[in-house]
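One such given next:
>
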Amino acid sequence: ARPRHRPSGSFSGVTLSAIAAGLAGAGGGSATRNSTPSAFETPSPVRQRSGSESVPPREAEDGGAEQGAGAPATTVLSRNRTAASAAAPWAQAASAADSAAVEAAAVKGTGMGEAEDVASVAARTVLLTSLSSRGAHADTLFNLVSSYDNVCEVYVCPGALPSPCAMVTFATATGAEDAARLLKGAALFGREVLVVVASAEDVESIRRAVLERREGSMQDFTGSPLNRFVRRPRRHINAPSRVLHASCLPQDVTREELRAHCLTACRPEELIKVHVFERSKRRQAWIEMATVGAGVNMVALVHNSQIRGVTINVSFSTPPTGQVT
């Protein structure tokens, strides 16, 4: 049996209480397969990709997508909110009035497109609680947790009490365990987030809250080209750090351009240094932040953003010398 990264006490009880009591008085959110989260508390420039627009292909961590150099300059934060075209069976059932049909269909399509028991889903699922309202958005959480494995589904319950919570299902149980272990104690937008591997009870409770009571939203990332490990194995699995690695940059990107891009997502005093490796075959860079928390925020906001039409990667890293030079 795989180890459970769970603090002392019953986390399920906390979650059930939040879903059963905290969400009871919240406004009914729409449980859609490709829900569009509300705007952040602090708005950032966003370039929305249209449904017909192709996503630049993902390449290896040391690779880059060079297309789009002639596209109009665009500041961040662009994210692909488009998943596969066919609706998940349980998402269709969620629109039906028969709760029994919803519950039966919810056992299917859990990120892999096939029937799967709840316990198996729970083994590759993590719960994130104590989120800030700014962090309770599917795209933001996807950018952060996709550092650990391909993401299948993200459920968000913004009305949970005492604070918003979310549930993320990965492609593998190893990804869920790595996320729970490495994100332990990480602060997202100034609030320390509790991340644990889910139980079957947790999974069922949040599904009911989102799919039946419409007290949250679900976004499906299954097969999304924005997942980090679509065409390569899992590697460079790191804990949050204040030094970040940027790749898939436009081949002619400059230090000043990348710095200006990053400053759309942070305060000037949080960004210490940007170093672009101009002699590398594929343009890459180090980004040094003032604190680990600032690094977490940068990954959550700038990963999968675009510079001149090119979707970039930002991940946690540590330079060989321990400093950006």
Confidence is low (pLDDT under 50) at residues 1-21, 24-115, 321-325.
